[in-house]
## 1
Amino acid sequence: MFDTNELVLNMGPQHPSTHGVLRVVLRLDGEKVVDGDVVIGYLHRGIEKLSENRNWTQIILLTDRMDYVAAATNNVGYCETVEKLMAIEVPRRARYVRTILCELQRIASHCLWVGTHAMDIGAMTVFLYAFRERELILDLFEEFCGARLTYNSMRIGGLPLDIPPGWDKKVLEFVKIMTDKVEEYEELLTHNRIWLERTKGIGVISGPDAIALGLSGPPLRGSGVLRDVRKDEPYAAYDEMQFDVPLGKAGDTYDRYLVRMEEFRQSLRIIKQAAEGIPEGPIVGKVPRLIKPPAGETYHAIESPKGELGYFIVSDGKSTNPYRFRVRPPSFCNLQGLRTLIKGHLVADVVALIGSLDVVLGEVDR
Amino acid sequence: MIDNFVIPLVKILVVLNATLVGVTYMVLLERKVIAWAQSRLGPMRVGPYGVLQPVADAVKLMIKEDITPVRADKWVFTAAPIISMVPALIVYAVIPFGPTVSIFGHPVSLFVTDVNIGLLYIVSVASVGVYGIILAGYASNSKYPLLASLRASAQLISYEVAVTLTLVSIILMAGSLSMVSIVNAQYNQHVWYAFVQPFAFGIFVIGGLAETNRAPFDMPEAEQELTGGFHTEYSGMRFALFFLAEYANMIVVSSVATTLFLGGWLRPFPNVAALHFLDLIPSWTWFLIKSFLFLYFFIWIRATLPRYRYDQLMRLGWKVLIPFAIANLVVTGILKVLLA
C-alpha cells in the first residue's frame, strides 16, 4: 500500500556542525543513515603545490594554514623534517621549548574539540568553559611569538626568538589552573547519563579496522591500538619526558572522548616537566645562511593533536625550494573512517561522529 | 456594567500584555542566566545591563525582510506561526494568579475566568500549538524542517499521554477540574500536592520540558543537527512568533505546575497562623515567585545538559514515564478509596 523512499539529505558545506566546509551527502531511511558520501575539497588552497615555489623558510608560514587550530605542531613537524634532511643538530633548549609549544597546542586543540563536540551533542556550556582556558594558551603564544592563531613560531634549526623572561613561570601557572579545569569539564560530561547514552556504542570501530582505514591519533587509540609517535619515534624532547599513552577499549565515541580527556592530563604532565627543566644554551643550531638541503627525500612524522602528521619532502639539491612537498594530514586520513562509522546510525549521531573524529577542514583540503 | 464588561476586558488586556512583555523579558532572562552560567556577561549594550535588549530585538525582527520560499505552501506557511502562537496565549484565560480581592469596592478575581473544566481546557488548547510546528515543517517544503516536524509530532504524542495521566491523579486528589478549586483544595487539605504526589510532579516536570521543546528534549529545533529545525525557512516576525510561542509555553507550563503542585497563589505553609505576616505580600506575588523559580530551573537545565537523541526520548517516554504515570494514578486511586 505504502512504499518508502530514501531521502537524500545534503549536510553541508554550510551546516553548523560540520566543523567548517565538510559536506556529507546522507541517504536516509527515516532518520537512519543508510549511506553517507563525504565530499571534501571546499577549502583547497594548493598548499603543497604552492610550497614548491617558495624557499624552505617561507614554507613554515604555509604550514600554519593547514591545521589552523594547531599551527605550532605543524611548524615543528615541518622544521624537523627539513632538519632531518639536512642533518642539523637542534640545541637542547630549543627542543624543550618545542615540546612545551607542542603540548600547549595539543591542549588548545583539545579545548576546541571538547567544546565543539559537546556543543554538537547539545551541552553548550562546556564550549565556553573550554574557550576560556584556550584563551590563556593563546595569551602564552602571543607572548612567545606575537601571534594568536597562525604562529609561524619555528625556524629550521631552532627557534626564531628565545622565550621571554618569566614565560616558563607563566606556563607553570597555567598548568596549575588547567589541571582543575579539566576536572570541571569532566564533571559536566563524563558521568552524565545523557552524555553516556549519546556516546556509548556510537560509531564502534575495532582496532584492526581502524588500522585498515588508516586512522591515527585519538581515534586509533580509542580502539585500543597503542601507537603514539611521541613514544614510538620520539622527536623534540619527548625521549626525556615521562608520560603515559591513554588507550580506549570499546572503540566508540565515548572511549575516544575519554582518551582525549586523559591526554589533557598527560600533556599537562609533559609541560610541567619540560617547563621546569628548560636547559640553558643556544636556541638555534648550526644552520647555513642559505638553506639548501642535499639531494634526497625524507619522511618524518610527529604526533599532532589530531593524529600522525607526516611530511614527505624531496629536494633536488640544486634549488632553494623543495622539488616535491607532500603532507600526510591526520584529519584527512581520519575522515576516511566517517563513512564506515555513520552507517546505521541516526542523523543526530552523524554530528557526534564528525566531532568525535576531530577533523579540521583546512588540513583535510590543504 | 462595570462588573460584567469593564473589569473582564481590563483583565484580559492586562493578562495579554503582561504575558507578551513577560515572554520578551523571558528571552532576556534566559540569555542572562545562561551567560552567567557560562562565565560571560550576556547582553550589555542596549540600556543598563542590557535591559532594553528585548526592545531592540523586537525592532530588528519587525523591520527584517519577510521571506516566503517560492516552493512553500504559502497559506499554510503563513498560518503556521499563528497556530503556534494563539493557543499559547489563550491558555492564560484560566490560570489563576490570585484569589478574589476587592479593588475600590469592586470584587475582582485575579484570573480572567474560572471554568469548571479548566484543566481540560489547558491540555486541549496547549496541544493545538504543536500543529503549528508540524505545519511549518510541512509547508516549508524543505528537508530539515520536515524531519523536525516529524520529530515534533512523535515527541508530542509520547509526552502528552504521560503528562495528562499525572494531571488525572491531581484531579483525583482535588476532586475538581477547575484551577481555582484545585488551589483551594490544597489549602483545605493543608498540603501542596508536590509533597503528596512527588512522582506525578517529577513526571510533569520532565514531560513539561519535552512538551515545550526545551533542552534536553529540544530535538525539533536541534540547531546542531537540523540547522534550526522547523523554523529554518522562517525569518522576521514570523520567526519571532515561533520564538515567542516557545517561551509563552514555558510560562504556561510553569504556571500550571505552580497551580497544581505548588499551591498556586498560596503562601508557604498557608495554614500556619504563626507565619501570618507573610500575608503582607500579595497573593499574586507568591504565584509569580513560584513560576519564576520554575522558569529558572528550565534555563538552568538548558545550560547544563546535553541533548537526548530522538529514539532515546521515545524510549524514555513510552517505557519509563507512561508506566510510572499509570502506576501513580492507580496507587492514588486505591489510597483515595481506602482513606476515605
## 2
Amino acid sequence: MLGLFPKSAILTAIAALMFAAIGHRSANATVFNPESFTIENGLQVVIVPNHRAPVATMIVYYKVGAMDEPPGKSGLAHYFEHLMFKGTKNMAPGEFSRTVARNGGRDNAFTSQDYTGYVTTFAADRLDLMLKLEADRMTGLRLTPEDIAPERRVVLEERLSRIDNNPRAQLSEQAGAALYANHPYRIPIIGWEHEIKSLNRADLMAFYRAWYTPNNAVIVISGDVTATNVKPMVQRHFGALPARDLPTRPDWKEPPRSADRAVSLSHPRVRQPSWSRRYLAPSYSTGDRQHIYALNVLTEILSGGTTGRLYRRLVVEQALAAHTGAWYSGDNRGPGVFGFHGSPRPGRTLDEIETAIEAEIAAVLKDGVTDEEVKLAIERLRAEAVFARDSLNAPPRILGNALMSGQSIEDVEAWPERIGAVTKKAVDAAARAVLNTDGTVTTRLTPQSKPEKKS
Amino acid sequence: MTRRLLTRWATRATATAFLLIAAVAFTDQPARALDIEPVISPGGIKAWLVRDTSVPVLSIEFSFRGGRTYDAAEKAGLSNLLSGLLDEGAGTLDSKAFQAELQNRSIRMSFSAGRDTFRGSLKTLNKHRDRAIGLLDLALTKPRFDTEPLERMRQQSLISLKRRSTNPDYIAGRTWATAVFGDHPYAIPSSGTPATIAGITRDDLVEFVRERFARDLLIVGVTGDITAAELAPLLDRAFGSLPESKVLPAIADATPRLTGDTYVVELDVPQSSIIFGQPGLRRDDADWYTGLVMNYILGGGGFSSRLYSEVREKRGLAYSVGTGLHPMRLSALISGGAGTKNANVAESLKIIRAEWDRMRTGGVTADELSRAKSYLTGSFPLRLSSTDRIARMLVSIQYHDLGIDYIDKRANYINVVSAESIAKLARRLLDPGKLTFVVVGKPAAVTPTAPAPQI
C-alpha cells in the first residue's frame, strides 16, 4: 500500500479527509497515560512519556484558528502562523528555525479552523532550550514590514500550490462555502486571495495580542521526558507571562436548512470525474456525543479499507467505481461533517456512482448494520490505538486535537472503552440521525473539453 | 474540507518528494546507539533486529534488490502493479478472504516498487504475529493474481495515470526523468503508461514472483517486542520458501544526460512546477559526507538552507524550495524542486543558478559548516520514532553496506568534513553548465533552450 499505487492513493486521500476521525481512533485508555499540570497563568502542559529514544516532540497549541478571524480578514490565522518564525526582541527573524536546526531539531507549524500548533522535534536534552524559545515568541514577537511583505508572497504561493493549481481543491473550497450557511467554517483556512492581500501589520498584531496568551495555550510533549523534570522548566520560562482576558467567542450555530445544494466544477485539467456528498453531523462541541462514537464505527463499517461496504460493493462487486469511501470528522469546535465520495471506472458515470452510494445509504437506513460488522470495526479501531503509541507525533497530535475541540484528557483515555461500548442499535440510530437530514451538499468534478476562458 | 490543516512547509508532491527523501536517508547521529542484533534463522535467513519492548507490536521491513528498473520497457509499471496485488489473494484465500484476514486483525502489509529495490512492510500487534507471518509467506510465494483483483488494480492504475496526466508536478517529474535518463531503464515511468499497463498479463506477474524474489536478494530489518530466539523461526516461516538465489540481468550505468538546458512544458496553471539538478554522488562515493554537508547548506536544510533563505525567506518567491542528494545504484543526481507563480519563475531560476555558482566558487562559511554539522549529527535520533522507521533504517544500512557499527561512526564521518573539502568538492561537482531545469506551467520571460523531451 505504499508508493504511488492507486489503491493506496485512495486510502491516503481518505486518511486526509478523515484526519480527525483517525486521530480519535488512536486514543486508548491504558495507552497514553498522560501526565498533566497547569501553572498559575493558566498554561496547561500535558506529557506523554516514551523512553524508546532520547528524543521528544513538543506541540504548542493555541486555541485560535481560522474560525476566530474577524470578518473580512480571512487567512489571518494562517498568515500569522508563518510570521511566528520571524523575530523577537531576543531573536533575529528566522533565528528560531536556525536555532532549532543547530541543535539537531526540526520545526514546523499548522493551522486549522479550530487551532494553531507549533511543532518541534529534538533531542530530549534540549527541551529547556525549546521551551525558552517558545516562551519567547508566545508574547515577544516583533513584526516589521520587511518580515510581513515577503511572507505574504509565500502565503499567496502556498494558496496557488494548494488550491489554485488544483481543480479538486477548488471544488472542495466551494463545497465548504456551500455547506455552512453561517458558521465561519465556510471560509477556507488559507483565506480568500483578495483578503490575504489586504491583511496588514495592525491586523496581525491585534490578532497576536488577542489570542497568544498562556491561558489560551496547551503544550503537549511526548518522548523521553517526565512531568517532574518538565515542570520547573515550564515554570521558569512561562511563569512570568501574564494571563490575559480572551475575546468573547461567538457561539456560532448553523440554522436549520431544508435545501440540498449542488456544487459542480468542470475544468480542462480534470481527467477523472468524481462525486461527493456532505452532511452536517454531530461534533464534540455541538452534537450528541453519544452519536460520535457510533459514527466512528459506522465510518469504519462503510469505509474501512478494502473490506468496507462501499469498496466491497462499488469497487469489487459492481466494478463500477475506481475509488469510493466515507469520512467523518467530529472532533471540531464547530459542526462535524459526514461525507461520501466516489469516482467511476472508465465507461461508467457520476450518476451511476451517485445512485450506487445512495443505495448504500438507503440500505444502512433501512436495514442497519450487522452485529458482526460492529464487532470487527470496534476491534480494528481499538487496534489503531495501540499503533498510535508506536509513534512520537501521534500522541501530541491526538491529545492536542482533543483538548482544542472541547474534550478532556479523560475523554481521550476513555475512547477505546466508549468505542467498545457501541452497539448495532447505536450505529443504526446515529446513521438515521445524520443521513436522514436535509441540507446536504453534493459535488461533481468533471472534465471540460474546451479550454477555460477566464484568467 | 478535505484539508483541515495547513502546514508551514511541504515538499512539492511526488515529483520533488522523491528527490528529497533519499537525501535525508542517513543524515544524523544518535545520542546513544541502537543495539542491533544480527539474527540468522535455522534456515539461513539473515536479519538485523532491534528489540523494543515499549509497544506490543512487531515491524518487519524488507527489500529485494532489483526493483522496477528490471521491468521490461514494454511492461513498464509491472512492479508497481504487482505491489498492489500481492495482498489481493494468495494460497487458498481469495482477495476478499485475504483482505479480511488482514483487516480483521489490523495487520498492516504493504509493498512498493522502488527504482533499485522492491520493498515490503509488515506491522502487526504481537498477538497476531503468527498469522501475519503466515500471510506474508503466502503473499510472497503463492499470490493468486485472480482476474477480478487484477482487472480492478489495472483500472485503478490507468485512472491514476489519467488523473496525473495534467498534474504539473507529475509532468515535471516525467519530463525530468526522460531528459536525464533518455532510453536507460531509469527513465521508464514508475507506474507505466496506459499502453504498458493494458498489456500486462497474469503470466507476467507470475514470472515476476518466480524470477525477482529470492533469498540472496533479500535484506531484512526487524524491530519490536521480540527476542532473537523468537524471531529466528519466524524468519524461516516468512521467507524460507523463497528460492535460494536468482541472477538479475546486468544493466549498464545510467550517465545523466544533463546539458544545462532549460526545458519548458506549457500547461495552463497559475503556478509553475520546477525541477532542477545535475549529476551527483553515489552513496559509496568517498566524498559522500562532504556532499551531504554541502547539500544541507545549499538547499537541503529545511528552513535554514541558502536556497530557502534567498528564494522564500527574503523574497517570498516560492512556498517550497529545496535540494537533495539522490544516489541510485546506477547513477546519481543532486537535484531539487520549487513551485512559484508564473511571473516569478525567471527570477527563481536566476537565484538558483546564482546559488549554485556561489557554492562552486565561494564554498561555505565556518558558521554554516558548524550549523550543518550540528544539525546532521544531532538530529539522528529523531528518526527512531517508531518500530517501522527503525526497521527501515536497518534495511538501508544493510542495503548500502555501511556496517553494523555505522550509527556509532556516523557522527565522525560528518565531523571530519571541512570547509576546504566542501570547496574542493563544489569545484569538482557543481557545474552550472550542467545545471538543467524543467519548468511546467506558463512561465513569463523564460526562454527554453531546447524542446522538452516527449513523455
## 3
Amino acid sequence: MNTKSLVSIDDLNTDEMVSILDLAEEFEKQPSQALLEGKVIATLFFEPSTRTRLSFESAISRLGGKIVGFTDASSSSVTKGETLNDTILTVNNYCDLIVMRHPIEGSARLASEIADVPVVNAGDGANQHPTQTLLDLYSIRKTQGRLDKLNIFLVGDLKYGRTVHSLLMAMSRWNTTFNFISPEELRMPVEYKLYLDKLGLKYYEHSDFTDIINEADIIYMTRVQKERFSDSMEYEKVKNVYVLRNHMLRETKENMRILHPLPRVNEIHKDVDVNSKSYYFQQALNGVYTRQAIITRLLNLK
Amino acid sequence: MKEPKQLSVSAIENGTVIDHIPASSLFKVIQILGLDKISNQITFGTNLESKKLGRKAIIKLAGIFFEDDDINRIALVAPEAKLNIIRGYEVVEKSVVKVPDQIIGIAKCVNPKCITNFESVTTRFKVISKKNVALKCHYCEKITDQEHMVIL
C-alpha cells in the first residue's frame, strides 16, 4: 500500500483492494496465525460500536496480538476535555497500530497525520468505514466468484447510508449495474449518480420493492431509520414497505445473496434467515478475515 | 485612442496593483494576503464604479511582488481579480488570478460535523471545480460550494 493507514476506501487502488481480498482468503483457510505476537493494537472507540469492535478484537486475537483501548468516550480522558491530537500522540507511544472509531467526520484522517503508527478507520461519523466496504467486497466476490459485471441492488436508506455510498464507489471500478430501491426522501444523492454517469455505468431507481429483484446478483439491505425523517408520518408510511420477506425470493436467481451491514431491525424478516440466499451472518464472519488481512498488510507482516 | 481615465488613487513607482476585486471582498483579500501586517505603503480604493462588478475595489502595493501561489489564494474571494506589475510607473506585466488545485486554510468546511470545526486544525481542500468553485474537504470529504463558502 502507498499509504500506511487505511482511512478512506479511496486510499486504495484496485490492485491493492484485490490483494487484500486475496489475503483475507488465506486467513479464511487458516484464521489462527501468530503474526501479531508481541504486538500491541489500540482499539479506540470514541463511540460504542460493539459489532465492529468485537470483529476487530477477534481478528487481532486470532493473530496473537494484545489489545489496549477503550469502548466508549466516557471511559477515556476525552470526558476531561482532552483533544484528539493529545489522545493520539499519547496512545501512539503504547501500540503498533491504532484502530479508531469516532463520531466526528475526518477525525481518522487527522489521527493518521498525527500518529507515527498506522491508523485503521473503523468509522468516522457519516464519512468512511473502509473495512466494512472491504468485507462487503469480499462477501460479493466469494459468493459470486467475481466482482465484474454484477447487478447490485441497494435497498433502504440510500441518502444517509455511509456503507452503500462507499460500496457504490468501490464497485464502480468493476463495470457494475446498480439498482436503487428507496423511499423518495432517502434516494441516492445526485453526486453519486453523476459519478456513475461519468463512468458510463448503468443505474435504475425504483420506489417500489417488487419482483424487479429477480434480476439481482446481490441485494444489499440497509435500515430505514426513523430519525432520518423530518415528518414522522412519512416514516410510518414507508417503514414496512422496504422489508424483505422470504416469499419475495422465490423467483430470484439461484446464486443471488442478501447482504446487510447489521444490525438489522425489521428490514429483513426473520423468515429469510433460513433461506440459503441469506448471507448477512457469514458476511459478518468475513469481516474478521478481512480485518486480519488489513492489519497484517498495514504492518507489512504479509 | 481612448480618453485617459481619471485615477481615483495615485500611481506607484514599483509594485503590484490588484484590480477588479469585488468591493465586498476587499477586507477578505487584505486578510488573506496579510496586508494588515506589513509595513509597505499600500493604497486601497473601494466602492469604485465598475461596469463588470458594479462596485469594485483596488489595492496598490508599493514594492511588493507576489509569487503565483500566494496571489492565487485570493481567487476564492476575488475570482476575476487582475494583477498589474508596475516598474518605473509602467505596467510591465498583466495577469489574472487562477483558482489553485489546493486550498490550505482560508476557507471553512461547511460540514458542522467535520473535525476541522472541532479541533484546531488548518483546513485543507482539493479544488474539484474551478468555475463554480467547489472544495472537497481533505478530512471529512464533504463538498463546500461557492454559495456556502465562509472565509476564515
